[in-house]
Amino acid sequence: MPKQANVRYGATEVSPQEVQKAAEGLYQGGFFCCEAVMSAIRTAFQIDVPEGVIAMSSGMSIGVGRSGCMCGALNGGIMAIGMFFGRTTQGGPKDPKVNRCMAMTKELHGWFREANAKHATCCRILTRGFDMVSGEHKQQCIAFTGLCAGKVAEILCRELEVKNLDSEPIKGLDKPFLPPQKKETVNAQVRCLIQ
User: Fold this and answer.
1) What is the 3-state secondary structure (H, E, C) of 37-48?
2) Which helix (H) or strand (E) holds 24?
3) What are the backbone angles phi and psi of residue 164, rounded to the nearest 5°?
4) Which residue, among 112, 47, 56, 50, has the nearest Cα to 84 in the 3D structure?
5) Considering the entire predicted model, what is its pTM?
6) How big is the CA angle at 156 (ends 68 and 37), to the nearest 5 degrees?
7) CB 151 within 8 Å of CB 144
8) Which residues are registered as beta bridge partners of 71?
9) For residues 143 and 191, what is the distance between their CA atoms, to the nearest angstrom?
10) What single-letter DSSP state applies at residue 122?
């Protein structure tokens, strides 16, 4: 295990694309975004930490406890990187350890902002127009969860020198998820066209 990691892990090779699929499945199975990312990373990298790290992430889901702030999937990715590379001692703003960790989380943030095809990280913006209990909203969040988990796995493979089994990087979305048009909106558009 490289000396820079805070946690012990057993993985020597990881497929970020499989981590992406696993996180999507965990969201579909009943976890929220942040929990699914943490669980998928914990399992794939065989991290020697209690399941409690998943519980620790529960409050970060849905833009931090349904507040609509930063996307919970992105929060989960940031927490996962911090679990490996964050600091536990006070070292001030020039501490190379915390600056290295923040460089990785900034990389994830910038990548996700573009990869989600909406150029945003705010849950409120990402979910604007969606009915929070509809299928379209859930499909979008499943995809975002997979994107974050897969990209975190790529970053961790690179930084931990764990073999990345994939020949292609995690790809962002070609187009954004759009909320379904409400029936009233469609009817109003048709009326305008008729008049």
Assistant:
1) HHHHHHHHCCEC
2) helix 16-29
3) -85, 115
4) 47
5) 0.89
6) 35
7) no
8) none
9) 35
10) B
